[in-house]
Amino acid sequence: MAARIYKRHHLSVPGPDGGCYPIRVAERRAKALTAVGELLPALDAYSLNAQWADRSGDPRQAAEAQLALAIHLVMLSRYDNALEHLDRAEELFQAAGAGSTAGTVMLWRAKVLSSRGHFDRALELLDGLERGLSPGDDGLAMSIDALRGNINFWRGDIGSALEAFERQHAHAVSRGVKETELSALINIGLALREQGALDRAAELLERAMAVARRFGYAAYYAIALGSLGGVHLYRRRPRMARDCYLEQLRLTERMGDAYSACCATGDLGGVYIELGELDDARHLIRRELALCREMQDDLGVTFARFKLGVVETDDGRLDDALELVRESVAGVRGLNTERFLGMYLVQLAEIHCRRGEHAEAWAALREALPLRQGGSETDRAKALLRERLRARSDPAAAEADLLRLLDACPEDRAAAYRALHEATGKEEYRQRALELLEEQQRREPTRKAEREIAALRGGAGSSNDAAR
What we know:
Blueprint: H1 2-9, H2 22-35, H3 39-55, H4 59-75, H5 79-95, H6 102-115, H7 119-131, H8 138-155, H9 158-175, H10 178-194, H11 198-215, H12 218-234, H13 238-255, H14 258-275, H15 278-295, H16 298-314, H17 318-333, H18 338-354, H19 358-368, H20 376-390, H21 395-408, H22 413-424, H23 427-443, H24 447-457
Helix pairs in contact: 1-2, 2-3, 3-4, 4-5, 4-6, 5-6, 6-7, 6-8, 7-8, 8-9, 9-10, 10-11, 10-12, 11-12, 12-13, 12-14, 13-14, 14-15, 14-16, 15-16, 16-17, 16-18, 17-18, 18-19, 18-20, 19-20, 20-21, 20-22, 21-22, 22-23, 23-24
């Protein structure tokens, strides 16, 4: 509908001499195309807008057109091209004497850096930008706060991120800025998901999808849909998650949204890990890795390698898994994100544990334990692995702590009972783990659960017990 509206109302805007205003028309056309998810045609319109603005002789108008084009290129994950146009916009703003607008250019430079995982450098820019704010720069201040929220989220400080997203939402609602309101709703949903508040997260993400559908914001609809897929995955509903990610991938590929398509590809790989379909997972995550390299997304590269390491771990190829996860740990150390470093270290400890290298497993886990990771999933994984390792020296204490963990992790009760059996050798725990897995298998069968059931029936104790 929106695509028809712009053709009707904006393509013939009369001027005082009977002509048209081509610059304004191209800009409005590009915005309408972006709203409905036609990102590549929108790029053509923004490029045309910039060409016409350059010919106008007005440096302020040319600068604004260059900035709009740069922002759209960031959306398409064409970061090097975006930086070129940000440079041009900054030059033109300075020529026009519009130094205050240069703050928006700096904000988008910080956005590029954070998208590539360079959080420290992004924060340095934001700090400098914040120091130069004037009392009337409310909109820019809110954008800075929102980007800080995103960085805090990726670093693992979910509480601070949630506070920033809630401020962003309140500001957007008060000003009637629907796109920012949608972005904030999705971000709040993601933060709540990481905190384990899955019902509230699903409610907000479904609300965001409804608003996006109502107003025709295709890109936000696709992002909210993929985020809802993550909620389903946390609830151990991998097929519902798969449906969300498949539809997100279809939508984002059609739109030309490379970053979201890359995320959906990798998330699908994660679903296939949970389903135990390891060949499919490996294929998708290798594709994600290639896309991250194309976008020069350094954090994304480490994350894709880490997930490949999980695939190889589950497939019993522990040498390959160890190499991949070590590469991820090394790569992420320079990016200063506790969330990802902690996640990778827990997997590294798991691999060492399966290889029977318990000293190395403890070393990796001890480094991971104090790190902020935000997500309840990784916190539970850390706790379970810690007790499995502690059981070698103090099985009674490990058993007591694992029993306390049962109530804290209802989604992982089967894993907790497997860990209890591994720690104590008690048949009652093996039997309870088996019952829970068989119940899960009846509800939503997967090859992963099938393998774990076979291991328990064979008396192996746990699929995590290969080293013992």
